Amino acid sequence: MSVRSALAWGVFGLSCALVGVGSVIRPGDPVDAALALGFTPLGAYLISHRKGGAVGPLCLLAGLSAVTYAAGAYGSRAGWPAADWAVGLAALTWAPPLLAGCTLLLLLVPDGKLPGPRWRPVAAVAIIAIVLFTVTAALIPADDARSPIAIEALRPLQLFTLPIVGTLAAIAAVSAVGLVVRTARARGPLRLQLLWICVGAVLAVLGAFLPAFVPLPGAGVPFILALPICVAVAMLRHDLYDTSLPLRRFLTLALLAGALVLLYLLVVRLTGTTIPATVAVAVAVEPLHHWLGRAAGRILYGGRSDPQEVHARLARRLADTSDPAGILAAVGDAVVEAVRTPYARIELGGHDEPLKIVERGRPAPVTLAVPLRFQGEELGAVLVSRESSGDRRALDQLALQAGAALAAAHRAAALQRSRLLLVTAREEERRRISRDLHDGLGPVLAGIGFTVDAAGNALAANPDRARGLLTQIRAQVHEAGTSVRGVVRGLRPPELAQLGLARAIEQSAAELRAGGLPIDVTITGTSPLTAAAEVALYLVAREALTNAVRHATPTHCAIHLRPAQKGFEITVTDNGSGLPPHTHPGTGLTSMRERVEELDGTLTIQSAPSGTTVRAWIPQ
């Protein structure tokens, strides 16, 4: 245990001791005891676990209420040594915990930060008002005038007490309203956490000022205790401050201790001796610890499984597999265990065309979808058919834990899909070439052969017919050359072979520029490019320009090709109308992306009403 934790829990222990001593001497104001025993354990927990920021020290400030309780009890004994000084100490310490809990604490829960810069003046005024009220309450003489720190000359300042109290009441009300507004605007688990805190805070504000209107002993105690109780509920049921594991351990040990004590007493009562009771406790401690651990998990997590156990099993499964399907299967099993859903679907890749899918359970309507992300990249989604208050948080934690494995699975599945598309495209291209050669060039060459035979046969007997056949042969050869050029053009654009990448792009731009569209072309270097990279960059430029002219009606376009990041980058921009929202990529966009990704490059398309930018990068 660190010094920080030891001091925090020491304050809690001292508070308990002071309240106990004060109760033995003479029971005092129960509000002070409620503040001390209700808030100091919460403050000690937050400080020792470094949670909640300034909320922990503010809760631990309630230890002054224990000092007030004990000092008031001691000061009630007028004949005891230094009893009057105890009265003065009680007058000096009773106000800060109560007032800070009703103002500053409401501003800072749950993370210890103000909701925004506009609340800084409110917090400053609250601190000043608390200090002023504390000083005036301690230095202005009371009716019995026993406090040695009271100054009679300051009695006229009692007139300022009411405005200070009014200011603090207004700040408390504003802080409570601000907490209600923050609760209404929050989403997800934070909203449920704030909802419990909000209920407790409103009741605490009422309890702090209730004794001024209802002169009953302890009238405000239930209201003041409502805030730490509601915070405890938020910690138990909605994992506020990430308390699930420590609380489960504490609850398990508490249940185990109680069960062992009951077992010991029962065996002693039945046998009349302690030896069998000790043996029974020693034998039962391990199975009881295991069973009560599961019971504590059910108490804390309701119908869901213990997140720690689910995460541990998921980690073991992920360590045993590297196959994308196996990784998705492990995540699917963990999802079912974590949220007890009757149906779960894990998609890797886009929703329209997922790379891989794993389903668990019988298909049912999906009520909750949680995206799977890793380092800002969306990899897929988890879809379940049942949604409760903690399901989204549980799924978010699973997605975070499995992010790296899912990213590897996504890349492997994408690579597999790319290889499949590449093989399919290659076979389609081979089939096209085979068809073109068989149906186009093959018959032409066969016809030339027959015509040559006929011309040879007619050469001696009919020279005129031979000359006609030779003319026909010439036409057939021309047709064969046209077929060959068509096949070659399908393999590689001839303008690239004839002009090179730079001049080919400029020629494409010139053809569109002839229609009245201004196009700026800037090319800073293309010498180290491979043939495949040249084809991909050229087709990206031509397709982007064609799409802009057809669909965006721009008044200006620009092409910029330059070396970038150990590769080459081409950027095509236009000032047209941009892509429609929720548009689906067509054949042109899909072809551009596939050509670039085949070369391990990247293609990004940024569209807005002011224009579209297509950027492709291909490594050297």
Tell me what you see in this structure.
This protein is α+β, with helices and mostly antiparallel strands and 620 residues long. It folds into four domains: 3-241, no CATH class; 243-301, no CATH class; 307-414, Beta-Lactamase, CATH 3.30.450; 494-619, Histidine kinase-like ATPase, C-terminal domain (Heat Shock Protein 90, 2-Layer Sandwich). Helix content is 65%, strand content 11%. The chain has 22 helices and nine strands. It has helices spanning 3-25, 30-48, 55-60, 63-75, 83-93, 95-102, 104-108, 120-139, 161-185, 189-209, 221-238, 244-271, 274-301, 307-319, 324-339, 391-401, 403-461, 463-491, 494-499, 501-513, 531-552, 587-598, and strands at residues 343-349, 354-361, 368-374, 377-384, 519-523, 557-563, 567-574, 602-608, 611-619. The strands form two sheets. It has a five-stranded mixed β-sheet with strand order 5-6-7-9-8, covered by helices on one side. Strand 5, helix 21 and strand 6 (557-563) form a beta-alpha-beta unit. Helix 2 (30-48) runs antiparallel to helix 4. The protein is elongated. The mean pLDDT is 79. Residues 432-620 form the Histidine kinase domain. The chain crosses the membrane at residues 7-25, 31-47, 54-74, 86-109, 121-140, 160-181, 193-213, 219-238, 250-267. It comes from Acrocarpospora pleiomorpha. InterPro entries: HATPase_C_sf (IPR036890), HATPase_dom (IPR003594), His_kinase_dom (IPR005467), Sensor_HK_TwoCompSys (IPR050482), Sig_transdc_His_kin_sub3_dim/P (IPR011712). It holds the Pfam family HATPase_c.
